[in-house]
Amino acid sequence: TYTPTDAANAEFYWTSSDDEILRVWGNRFRTLKQGTAEVIVRTLDGTFEKRIKVTVKETTNEPTVSYVKEIKTEKEEYTAKVDEAVDISYTYAPTDAVNAEFYWTSSDDEILRVWGNRFRALKPGIAEVIVKTLDGTIEKRIKVTVKEITNEPTISYVKEIKT
């Protein structure tokens, strides 16, 4: 929480002082290894900053939660025509992972527009659909080749006449 609750600069940026010890996304974090790091929260305008010290201790117990270890897609590569929309079927493992929220983006916004696990081909070229867990620990890239629409009709010729 923050005060005053009606503050005009109440938009925040969250980060970690050491990404090898602790990964931060939004107002959540994930510990990665033993050590000490800080969660740093700043107003977007830079006028206020708060640091929260986090000490990560080694555990000898088996983890009680699981995290995404792999993102699988139906295909590793897609071919699409300009203006075609395509859904990418995907799964992740393990299925009980606590960080099973994903961010989808394009490596080239002029070639592909991406929203969720769907893309639209915008112009000829090669780009990648990139899917990541929100905490940034797992990433998958899917190659997409976009081809121009051909308006030429397909012409067939007589090959045989039977009597």
Describe the structure in your own words.
- With about 160 residues, the protein is an all-beta fold.
- It folds into two domains: about 10-55, no CATH class; about 70-145, Immunoglobulin-like, CATH 2.60.40.
- The chain contains no helices and 14 strands.
- It has strands spanning about 10-15, 20-25, 30, 35-45, 50-55, 70-75, 75-80, 85, 90-95, 100-105, 110-115, 120, 125-135, 140-145.
- The strands form five sheets. A four-stranded mixed sheet has the order 7-14-13-10, with no helix packed on it. Strands 1-4-5 form a three-stranded antiparallel sheet, with no helix packed on it.
- A hairpin with a 5-residue loop joins strand 13 and strand 14.
- The chain is elongated and about 90 Å long.
- The chain starts with 11 loop residues before the first strand and ends in a 16-residue tail after the last strand.
Outline the secondary-structure elements:
Blueprint: E1 12-16, E2 22-25, E3 28-31, E4 35-43, E5 49-56, E6 70-73, E7 77-81, E8 85-87, E9 90-93, E10 102-106, E11 112-115, E12 118-121, E13 125-133, E14 139-147
Parallel strand pairs: 7-14
Antiparallel strand pairs: 1-4, 2-3, 4-5, 6-9, 8-12, 10-13, 11-12, 13-14
